[in-house]
Design brief:
The complex is a heterodimer of chains A (254) and B (267). Chain A has 254 residues and is an alpha/beta fold. Chain A is built from 8 helices and 12 strands. In chain A, the strands form 3 sheets. Chain A has a 6-stranded mixed beta sheet with strand order 6-7-8-3-9-10, sandwiched between helices. The termini of chain A are far apart. The longest helix of chain B is centred in the middle third of the chain and has 30 residues. Classes of the chains: A alpha/beta (254), B mainly alpha (267). Chains A and B meet through helix 2 of A and helix 6, helix 7 and helix 11 of B.
């Protein structure tokens, strides 16, 4: 089964094309790392899968139906960037997002309460949920936000830089947790990151974007000097050492 | 000396109650969205509207409401390009105040009228104004209730809310329009220059006192009530301007929230 399929998709805004003619399919149950240089369109691609960013052309399907905001099969963890954390507890943050697009007064109800508790339990964050989100450490906060992405039992998780601003130990812990969740719940995960190495223990395949193109495949097929030189638009060397992969400029003088 | 023995004091308390509820309720979301400066600027936009109405021979209140609501909707439409940028908002604020002075000059209005608009005159609220405040408050609260669920979500996590199907731009326009109503109401009590005290003070204090949303909202409305009632009462006994008394209490509440131990959760 295919979790997400892009057919002839071009993305861009303001007259600039970021990705052109993308044809890829993410299989259900895959953990895919989304990588690429800065500004290569990782976030735009995720926003297109969410249905928030309308493609210039082409078609995006999530589990066989068109991508659209509020798709019941999609869970999302936005990039935090320089976000200031709202002065509320994790539990209230999750509660506010439960059917949060409906009109009227915020109401949780018994099913909402159960869903929030189940999502927090799935990432072992129940004990963190009653503290203000800003008072949590980076790793704890990401666990609560992953719980939020799990609300409503989505089948596809789109995670935008969930490892940014975490120290290496917490990055590894979050990746382990994500891989565990993905296998236990049979989820499809598309997770963008800056550094491939922290994701290596978790990924089945990688989706590399750059120079307007997107290449999906196994790490050994995609993370190679010829492919990355094309995507980065310049000579790139790929050095493998001690089970890790390093992407470096080929020109040593540079 | 019993303040309730006087008609003007009973009217003042009623006006203060209506205004406290709507500015407390709207202010909670305003602070959560970090748009307090936009709320402050709407007061100044209202000043231009009120003085233009006077110049045209109309009562000031409809002009004030029209300007704050229209100004709010417009700020929401400009979205991040304006509503969250302090320089843009500051320019609009200064320009609006400038136009207010121009209209007042052309109208040759009295200094007392200008002072009442700028600094409020809750003890001078008449029955007609009170009725207008009641209608404004009812519309403000009804609209806020109708949009509160997506508004809360979008205020806390805009990117996630958008992915869930919340349309941020129209919602932002509707919300700042509602804030316009609250600003117009608050201006009747504390004046356009001091709406910050009623709109932002209680919410900022409440959000420091508790990380729970429901309790924070109720505490915010309660603090707004305490400030408005306490301020009017203090003004009655001290003969100080009511607007000063209300701002004093607002600053006191916020100060108490600031010195509260960081991790202490009161509710």
């Amino acid at each position: 089964m295919i979790a997400a399929e892009l057919s002839g998709v071009s993305l861009g805004f303001g007259g600039r094309v970021v990705l052109a003619g993308v044809n890829i399919a993410l299989g259900a149950g895959e953990f895919v790392g989304l990588l690429g240089p800065n500004g290569s369109g990782k976030t735009t691609l995720l926003r297109a899968l969410l249905g928030v960013h309308t493609p210039l052309s082409g078609r995006i399907e999530i589990f066989g139906t068109a991508a659209r905001p509020g798709h019941k099969d999609v869970g999302y963890l936005p990039q935090l960037g320089a976000a200031v954390h709202p002065p509320v507890t994790g539990r209230d943050l999750l509660a506010a997002s439960w059917h949060g697009a409906a009109w009227g007064l915020p109401r949780l109800g018994n099913d909402g309460r159960a869903a929030v508790a189940a999502a927090l339990g799935a990432v072992d964050a129940v004990s963190l949920a009653d503290r203000p989100i800003g008072a949590l450490s980076g790793g704890e906060r990401q666990r609560v936000l992953v719980a939020q992405a799990l609300l409503g039992q989505p089948r596809l998780l789109l995670l935008d830089e969930p490892l940014a601003s975490l120290d290496p130990r917490n990055q590894a812990a979050v990746v382990r947790m994500l891989r565990g969740l993905q296998q236990r719940l049979g989820l499809t995960v598309l997770c963008s990151a800056h550094d491939l190495n922290v994701l290596l223990p978790a990924v089945d395949r990688v989706l590399y974007v750059g120079a307007g193109q997107a290449v999906l495949g196994a790490v050994d097929e995609v993370v190679t000097a010829p492919v990355l030189s094309r995507l980065y638009g310049g000579p790139i060397d790929v050095v493998r050492a001690e089970g890790r992969v390093f992407v470096v400029p080929a020109d040593r003088a540079a | 000396m019993n303040p309730f023995a006087y008609d003007f004091m009973r009217t003042a308390y009623e006006a203060a109650a209506v205004v406290a509820v709507m500015s407390g309720a709207a202010g909670y979301f305003l602070v959560l969205r970090r748009q307090s400066f936009a709320g402050h600027a709407l007061g100044h936009v209202g000043f231009a509207g009120a003085t233009l109405a006077l110049l045209l021979g109309l009562p000031a209140l409809p002009g004030l409401i029209a300007a704050t609501v229209a100004g709010g909707v417009l700020m929401g439409a400009l979205g991040e390009r304006l509503a969250e940028r302090d320089v843009g908002i500051g320019m609009v604020l200064a320009l609006a105040l400038g136009f207010g002075i121009l209209f007042l000059g052309l109208f040759a209005g009295s200094a007392a009228q200008a002072t009442a608009l700028l600094f409020g005159n809750v003890l001078g609220v008449d029955r007609v104004t009170l009725a207008a405040l009641l209608v404004t408050g009812a519309v403000c609260l009804a609209a806020l209730a109708a949009m509160s669920r997506p508004l809360l979500f979008a205020s806390l996590q805009p990117d996630l809310a958008e992915a869930h199907g919340v349309r941020l731009r129209p919602l932002g326009m509707a919300f700042l329009g509602v804030v316009g109503l609250a600003v117009a109401g608050a201006a009747q009590v504390v004046g356009v220059l001091l709406v910050f005290a009623l709109l932002v003070g209680p919410a900022a204090a409440a959000q420091r006192f508790t990380p729970r949303i429901g309790r924070g909202f109720l505490l915010c409305v309660a603090l707004a009530m305490v400030q408005a009632f306490g301020g009017v009462t203090l003004a009655f006994y001290s003969d100080w301007p009511a607007s000063f008394c209300i701002t004093l209490l607002a600053a006191g509440c916020y100060g108490a929230a600031l010195v509260k131990p960081r991790q202490a959760v009161l509710f």
